[in-house]
Design goal:
- Helices cover about 20% and strands about 35% of the residues.
- The protein has an 8-stranded mixed sheet, with helices on both faces.
- The model has no long low-confidence stretch (mean pLDDT about 95).
- It has one domain: 3-Layer(aba) Sandwich (Dihydrofolate Reductase, subunit A), CATH 3.40.430.
- The protein has 4 helices and 11 strands.
- It is α/β, with parallel strands linked by helices and about 160 residues long.
- This is Dihydrofolate reductase.
- It catalyses: (6S)-5,6,7,8-tetrahydrofolate + NADP(+) = 7,8-dihydrofolate + NADPH + H(+).
Length: about 160
Amino acid sequence: MITMIAAAGENNELGKDNDLLWHLPDDFKRFKELTTGHYIIMGRKTFETFPKPLPNRTHLVITRNNKYEKEGAVVVHSVEEAIAIAKADDDQPFIIGGGEIYEMALTYAEKIELTRVHGTFGADTFFPEFSRENWKLIESVAHPKDEKHKYSFTYETWVRK
């Protein structure tokens, strides 16, 4: 099952200038719990925001640059190639961004783990719109604003109908 995982604002904002718009420790913890032991598929810009590869995950990095190489990354040149490699060894690979990769991968996704951050933000990268005609919300868990979280948010799990 191909799963897209993201945190997005009320207007699908993901980030600005290759950075996140918020700091949500509990969401980072959930991301780690869900993706550990799996393939994670991302674009080059997303990969380069990490100080080092995330532990206990196989990083598939999509780039148009045929000469791109980075330690800790399996470099591929299309979403289709990334999915084929991931599905050969993992029944639950995750698409982790960025915006362009989410847009290209939406047609292949069977599940979306979306953290909806309750606020609107100035952004230059967005999560793609998806139709509620094609997707069903199967779980929604609210998380209030608190001393560690400047914004309230809701974990939403969507599955393709």
